[in-house]
Amino acid sequence: MALQFFSMFLHPSRALYLTLTCAVLGVAACSSTPALNQAGELQLEANVATSNSLKILTGSRWEQVQPMDGSTDGINPEMRPALQLDENTGRFSGNDGCNRVMGSYQADMTSLKFGQMASTKMACIPGNDSVSRNFADALSRTTAYRLESNYLILLDAAGDKLLTLRKAGSSAPK
After folding, report:
1. I want to staple 150 with a disulfide (CB 3.0 to 4.6 A). Which of 38, 52, 142, 167 is the partner?
2. DSSP for 146-173, written as a single string
3. How many Å apart are CA 60 and CA 54, to the nearest integer?
């Protein structure tokens, strides 16, 4: 009886189907099951959200729109502090209102930390030297960020706003 049972699988067409079925089941068994995060969501979705947030952060040039001291005085557009973060190298570059600046950074979905910053030492237009110092100070104290529409808001460890930057090329709300 057992021989009759096994002989039905030895028929060439059945043997092919059996082999293919085993192969498909073997591949399915070896594939990993997506992990769930603490909220019970697929980890893949969280990675996509992180990736999108980082793509926006690193795929844009950000220009300062509000002086750090909270004053309503406009910033000279030609000397406006600005940043660009390079996702591939983990480096940032831009200007602080007087000098070109560059350095390293680390970022994830909510945290952002700038490493030691290097800058050129050019003469500064009177009045812009405080903008330059305040910009550098804000970067050194940044530990987190928040994206709101076309705005990047740099935050300190207490969650207080240090600096507001707008995506270059976007217009201010009316």
Report:
1. 167
2. EEETTEEEEE-TTS-EEEEEEETTPPPP
3. 10
Percent of the chain scored above 70 by pLDDT?
60
> CA-to-CA distance for 167 and 61, rounded, in angstroms?
6
C-alpha 152: how far from chain center: 11
Q: What angle do CA 131, 115, 51 make, to 5 degrees?
A: 100
All structural domains of the chain with their residue ranges: 50-167
**50-167: in CATH 2.30.30.60:** no
Q: Token pair of 22, please? A: 């085993």
Calculate the alpha carbon distances from 38 to 41, 43, 48 in Å. 7, 9, 16
CA 127 remoteness from chain centre: 33
Average pLDDT in the 19-47 region? 43
pTM above 0.70, yes or no: no
On whether the CB atoms of residues 121 and 132 are closer than 8 A, the answer is: no
Residue 153 in tokens: 């808001």
Listed range (3-7, 130-134, 142-146, 148-152) with the worst mean pLDDT? 3-7
